[in-house]
Design a protein that fits this description.
Blueprint: E1 2-5, E2 10-13, H1 14-31, H2 36-45, H3 50-56, H4 58-74, H5 80-107, H6 110-142, E3 163-166, E4 171-174, H7 176-192, H8 197-206, H9 212-238, H10 243-263, H11 269-289
Antiparallel strand pairs: 1-2, 3-4
Helix pairs in contact: 1-4, 1-10, 4-9, 4-10, 5-7, 5-9, 6-11, 7-8, 7-9, 8-9
Length: 306
Amino acid sequence: MDIYLPIAEVSVNWPFLVLLGAMVGFVSGLFGIGGGFLMAPILIFLGIPPAVAVASQASHVVASSTSGVINYAGKKAIDFKIGSVMAVGGVLGALLGVELFRYLRLLGQADLAVALSYLLFLGAIGLMMLYESLGAILRRVRGEVVPHKERRRPLWLYGLPLKMRFPRSGLYISAIPPLGLGLLVGILSAIMGVGGGFILVPAMLYVLRMRASVVVGTSLFQIIVTTAMTTVLQAGRNQTVDVVLSTILLLGGVVGAQYGARWSGKFRAEELRAVLGLIVLLVGIQMGLELFVRPSDLFAFAPGVN
């Protein structure tokens, strides 16, 4: 049941890849993230070159996110206006990120950059999410009443120019912060192969102070545009997109995301954040450990470097 991947130059079990796509798609729909932070490491562990894994699974992120957006759009849980502003920043970030990724590949440092990015970003964000959510769960179990705190937005948000109204999110702020968030996510999408939801969701909640009801759907909407652009650029500039691998992954991803979106309302918010934080932390640690493990093949050539 193996199939040969022409760009990755390895053979893999295709039913397992379909199942993997469905599993990551479910996680994507459940948490409102692209799922790339989980997919790319698993593909690398299966023996697929990091550069190919990062670029090829971006199409799976697009497919699973699209499936999730359809579900959230039906609930009117997407702010398309602020999502579009983030998407503009995401496209710009993707352009910069792909060029940076190409430069790192030419230097032979792309694999190191991918591992370090996962270790630093996922490790830090996973710790913060886990700490915050476990604290909320413990307070609920103990029956402690947490005094209500006014959700004040950072003062610097009001001092920036280019203010816009985002009625669905309940915001009247500068367009610069969401544009900057999109830019950062676009760069990370190119280097790490992630949708960036693990950064977007906390930032939209705790920095921009968007209404929680539209955060997940808006995050998925922005991810679609950014990762679609990243896939096209990676294929054209770096020739690292394996179409066979991408197609197999998205077959399962579309179905899995639909079920994940349906299940998202069956759990408490702090429980979802705790599970997501633990997953993010473990993936970051595992990728970081690869930096300190002696490779079985000390010399290898990366395919497709021009």
